[in-house]
Amino acid sequence: MCDTLAIVGSTGVLFAKNSDRDANEPQLLDWHPRRQYPLGATLRCTWIEIPQVRETHAVLLSRPRWMWGAEMGTNEHRVTIGNEAVFTREPYAKTGLLGMDLLRLALERAETAEAAVETIASLLNVHGQGGSCSAERTGFTYHNSFIVADPRRAFVLETAGRHTAVEEIHGARSISNGLTIPSFANRYRDPVKSRVAACDARQARTLSLAGSATGPADLMRILRDHGTADSQPGYSWLNGGLGAPCVHAAGLVAGSQTTASWVARLRPDQHEHWVTATAAPCTGLFKPVSVGEPLELGPPPGEHADLSLWWRHERLHRAALRDPRSALPLFTPERDTIESAWLASPPDSQAAFDEHGRLENRWLERVLAKPVRDVRPWYVRRFWQKANDRAGIKLDSVAGVPAFAGS
Length: 407
Description:
The longest helix is centred in the last third of the chain and has 21 residues, at 349-369. The chain has a single domain (2-299), classed as 4-Layer Sandwich (Penicillin V Acylase, Chain A), CATH 3.60.60. The chain has helices at 99-109, 113-127, 182-188, 191-196, 199-210, 216-223, 309-320, 324-327, 332-344, 349-369, 378-391, and strands at 2-8, 13-22, 27-32, 35-36, 42-44, 49-51, 55-56, 59-64, 72-75, 80-86, 143-149, 154-160, 163-168, 171-175, 256-266, 271-275, 287-289. Residues 398-407 have low confidence and may be disordered. It is 30% helix and 23% strand.
């Protein structure tokens, strides 16, 4: 599951997305330069092969490790897109383009938000959408909606099978795993699965918070929001933390976890992109990135816990969430101070990621050194114990904490 929002104003467009996926599914930043291809070349997407175009744009993607497509990203022309799973009455095809494939294809092929919408609709009409959308649950599939933005305009694009509906955004708009364009939703929305996804509650929350947002710092707060008066994560036995934008896994029916977050400010004369490149924005740090500046972030994440950026953060995330009321104050004030300074004067991207690695080691030592009792409901504790066992993560002591190897 996911939440994506955009705010279109007189000076540009603000964009933000939380990508919610399986708890043990790492996501990585992936840079690709502008490329040219011979006539007749083909392209292997996640499940199917399609004709390649003669030239693709440079892109920066946030991509689940196992798929070709991406959950969110931007290109050299400042087109920025996020997608959402939606559940419809239309049949689900066994194979086709994933919504994440459509997102990446649009970024590689379109120079404006309007052209990206047209690209997705055209590809959908020719190739359809379908296939497994999960590495852990191979039978899980869905249709997709998108927010597509550039510095001047933004659109909501919703799909049901090969059917599409488009709405231009004026002011604030958000989408959260349910069809929202009224006539399209009335015809195609699956009410049961949409209710389990808690899409209406999250969309109402993000839209309400977006109404007063004026910059990236506000968007980061929205993505970290737990929807509670005391700012602590809430859980439901049915769908875990799906009731708020900052999603924490645990449900017996739906077990999504926010696995990466992205914020952008798009203007005609400049653009800024900020990413966590880690799960759980409430424990993460937003860092500046750009399409034209590939970074050295260490080894790409594997299936199980390793020394990659994403898995290193999981030690901190999973340790802190056992008792967030006690653990988060051990490092989030320092995190917030650093983030505010970076927003005021963005550092070199590589330096920011290196500094985050060093800080994270210190924060993890603080959290693991403090005696803690897991205060979460029993079904949450059981969910995460199973997830930790599958990933090979142990949270019982500071010993064995993987150290950041950056400069």
